Amino acid sequence: MSYIPTVEEAKEILKKYNEDPFHLKHGEIVSGVMGYFAKEYDPSRVEFWKVVGMLHDLDFEQYPDEHCIKQQSLMSELDLDDEIIHATCSHGYGLTVDIKPQNTMEKILFATDELTGLIGAVAVMRPSKSVDDLELKSVKKKFKTLNFAAGCSREVITQGTEMLGWELDELIQKTILAMRSLNPEMNL
C-alpha cells in the first residue's frame, strides 16, 4: 500500500532532499496556499492538498535539470501515493514533463506555484515587506514588467489561469488572500 504522509512528515521528506532555506520556505508557502484553496474546493482533503504543496519541488534543489522527472522515481522509492506523484509532477507540465494537470488541485498548483514567487517578490519591495497590504493592481503592474522576478513564468501563470477557467485578476486576488492567511513569517 502506498504512503500518504502528514504535512509534518512531508516537511521532513522535503528537508531530506533540500537544504536551501529558500526552497524549504517555498514548500511551506505553497503548502499553505494549497491548504487555503482546498478549504473552498475540496474541504475534506485539506491536509492532502497541503502535502502536495509541500512536496511539489522535492527534486528541484538536487536535480534542477530533471525537475519533475527525477521526482517520480524519488517518490516511488519512498512509496508515496500515486496521486501525490501525479499531482506534484504535473506542475512541470510543458516544461519538463508531459503530465498534464487533470483536476482542480493540480491546476491550482500549476497556476499558483509561479504566482506565489511573483507575489512574494512584489511584497518584499513594499515598505511593509508584507502581503497584508498588497493590492491586486501592484501585482498586475509587476506581472506586465517581464524583467521583474523574471524567473516567475507569466506564461505558466496564464496557462494555469486558463486551465482553471478563471480570470487572471481572480487568480491573483485569491492567491494574495491565500498568502495573507499564512503565518506572517511564512507569507513571503
Task: Put the structure in a nutshell.
The chain has one domain: Hypothetical protein af1432 (Orthogonal Bundle), CATH 1.10.3210. The chain has 188 residues and is an all-alpha fold.
Describe the structure.
The protein has about 190 residues and is an all-alpha fold. It has a single domain (about 5-185), classed as Hypothetical protein af1432. The chain has 9 helices and no strands. It has helices spanning about 5-15, 20-40, 45-55, 70-75, 80-90, 105-125, 135-145, 155-165, 170-180. It is globular and about 45 Å long. The termini are far apart.
Q: Provide the domain count.
A: 1
Mean pLDDT: 95
* Strand and helix order: HHHHHHHHH
CATH domain class: Mainly Alpha
Q: What is the assembly state of the chains in this entry?
A: single chain
Key phrases:
188 residues; mainly alpha; Hypothetical protein af1432; 0% strand; globular
Helix and strand layout, with pairings?
Blueprint: H1 7-17, H2 21-41, H3 46-55, H4 70-77, H5 82-90, H6 104-124, H7 136-144, H8 154-164, H9 168-180
Helix pairs in contact: 1-2, 1-3, 2-3, 2-6, 2-9, 3-5, 4-5, 5-6, 6-8, 6-9
